[in-house]
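Protein in question quoted in full.
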Amino acid sequence: MVEAQAPPAIEGLRGQLLAAGDEGYEQARFTWNAMFDKRPALIARCAGVADVIAGVNYARENGLLLSVRGGGHSVPGHSTCDRGLLLDLSPMRSVRVDPVTRAARAEGGVTWGIYDHETQAFGLASPGGQISTTGIAGLTLGGGIGWLMRKHGLACDNLISADVVTAAGELVTASAEQNPELFWGVRGGGGNFGIVTSLEYRVHEIGPLVFGGAVMHPLERAHDVLAYFREFCTASPDELTPYALLVTAPPAPFVPPELVGQQVVVLAGCYAGDLEEGERVLRPLREFGSPPIDLFQPLPYTVLQSMFDDTVPAGQSYYLKGDYASEASDELIDALIEYAAAFPGPHSEIHLGQMGGAAGRVGENDTAFSHRDAEFVVIGLAHWLEPQEQDAQIAWVQALSNAVRPFSVGTYVNFLGDEGDERIRFAYGSAEKYDRLVELKRTWDPQNLFCLNQNIRP
């Protein structure tokens, strides 16, 4: 799209319209990832679907670059733009739960923390992410990896329908019965085909307590711990989603003084089932190597969902890359340990999470989400506060990604930065699937109005 000077008003807008110099503009342009300090020409804080339609029409008719923000957690900064129009859906935060039909409908500005708060009032939940401040829409459109995925599938696997504002400024419903091809595409194809203003999910009996938490080991034991983690995962039931994290131990009350500031291995997990059975299943993981810290216990599902929120606060700069692996081989484990020992700062992280379960039993071509047969997901994440740290942090993530690349069998759309068309194609697996997405893009957005995403060019 061509960046152009915006006219001064959007006709019919009910929500607030902000331009540079207006009170509230600086706060409204703020995004979770401070690496992207951009200044939209206009920010439309949408009060409802009519505002989204008006904004889409306005951007199209005036040749404006268009960005869309739900939760604002876009790692490559796609939820903002320079000199364009930012449609901010964050005021659209209603959630309605129907415990009889086991469905919940939420607007596009809802975060997982808000969604879980409402569904847990009925002892229900949908598979979501692992950071409660993440928007439900962006995570779901890219697939939706989270603590419940092995038991109930990905977020997109639990989508019943979505209301979508198209590039033509029309509201359509995507479901198995209405616009089924579009429904196929929004389950993994990202924001390429329109702006999702509401999402309807299946909900499941979860909690209010689940058995979850983490144990911690010093890095010098990492190879033994990760080799055991790999073995443990071979017998993991669907109710359990386990993760291994290589991080720097924080100065928290539960961390022994001798570990604070040291690289450690954290084994975390959520057992979404009977609490006694969860304790039994996780006992070997908790006992292996006599870890100095054991935080596993029955805890509210909402607490588990926000357990890592403080590790990724808004307002820091973030950079990450992620890949899928078919196995956690000794060579991959050695590479992860090598890069953990060379963290460029205290907020660098490496994640190794088990996939499979219910998420792996959905057909590869049933949704746009790909690589259903992957056994593990590997993520390298860095975040920092001081600008002078940026080059070293990014270089470390890129080097880690290059080291992981020989073991990669695919990548996840939501973990891509601005890495080019080749990596986007890699995220969708087969050429046939990518061609199907291109055809869908031609149908719904032939002019590529929705280009600030992992873009599928028409």
